[in-house]
Hints:
The active site is at residues 169, 207, 366. By secondary structure, the protein is α/β, with parallel strands linked by helices.
Amino acid sequence: MANQDIAETIASVGYAKVIVMLTPAGLGLGLAAARGGVDSSASRAAEAQLQDHFIVPSEAQQESLALDARASASRSFRRAVDPATRRMRVYPHLGLATGFVDAAGMAALETSPTAGSIVKAPELSLIRPTSIRPARPRKTLSWGLRRLGVEDMWNAGFDGKGVVVGHLDTGIDGDHPSLKGAIFDFAEFDLAGDKVPDAKPHDSDEHGTHTAGTIVGRAGEKGAFGVAPGAQIASAMVIEGGQVIDRILSGMDWIIEKKCPILSMSLGLRGFTPAFQQIINALRAGGVLPVFAVGNEGPLTSRSPGNYDNVLSVGAMDQADAVASFSSSQKFDRPADPLVPDLVAPGVGILSCIPGGKFAEMDGTSMATPHVAGLAVLLKQAKPAASIDQIEQAIIGSCTLPVGMQKARGNRGLPDLRRAFQLLTGSPLPVKGPAVAVASRRKVSKAKPVTRHATKSTGKKVAAARI
């Protein structure tokens, strides 16, 4: 039986874009070629057979798609979109395929031995900051780093060195002084979802540079705001505009190929949709911990996939230990991990870098998420053999809910790096001298936490409804 959303879309416009989870018979499609080899004749034949079920949209349909793509593109990325000629796109590391189908193609897919579950392809958008203010760097640790206790990890010798973190966003400014030596690799996926050859690190907006700076920004005479200043980042430009789901899936496939153990992403679709579940399952199967923003639409709202029970979902808090008014939170009718976000992190007045050698303060769950991704990086360095599940459980188990913070808004509360380190390694964090030089430090008051430690289930997703 065809997915009702797919059937309704086909009935309305004549076609629908779908995501297909490949069966074991189809999992090898394109994998050898993606790794620089040659696919077997059997694999090529299976791919050709599967491709026959997809269509290339008509000229009128493509014109409509191109208009939508340009309208939704980031302001410096609005350009013509070439007509689609590819029937199907395979993401070999994710084990997925996408393409447009009509009614006949959908019926054929449902009986194909290489096609498993089929869902309508959703369209994600950037979780934009609620406020952006030009700022000057301060010769101190940012308040977010102080609040999370990041300096304790640095002083113990853990700054993220040797770990490459994944980052899907609007891109990254490769010339910013605060990101010098921080970029491991960069990929630009164009409006059709194709990788641009030899692209230099750049940002189609400023969001990506800001979030990247929070993860790996280098400390120095202009202060420190990067959680893991010794780590490197694999950053892909995947948003906004164009065939967004193709761009994001291409980026995720690339992140798995790059063997990044952690992925920071601040993208999503308003509300709950199960369409991403197979994608998140594929990410985790590929050894990637998804650290995603929950959204900026306030209480009783959330975004997919940041509201899934098998992602590390992040909300935003301010310096007074209050959940930001814009930070999304929601309870779902499911036995496993019903409340999102999983935890909160600094997300108000967050100083980081933006393109052109400049700096800005931003507010948003997009600003909180890279803080948590950075924590995961530090823990991965501390115990390289740790699985992504172990790192996730250590972060969640370390959380405390500050006095006055509502559980319905902040869930488990704020992570504690010292406790996370001990939970992960079985040993207390060693005390050593300063490892990252910063010109000066300021103290920040901390509310006494109420310790409410919890674990997180990463079990199979069940049907969910908004409450």
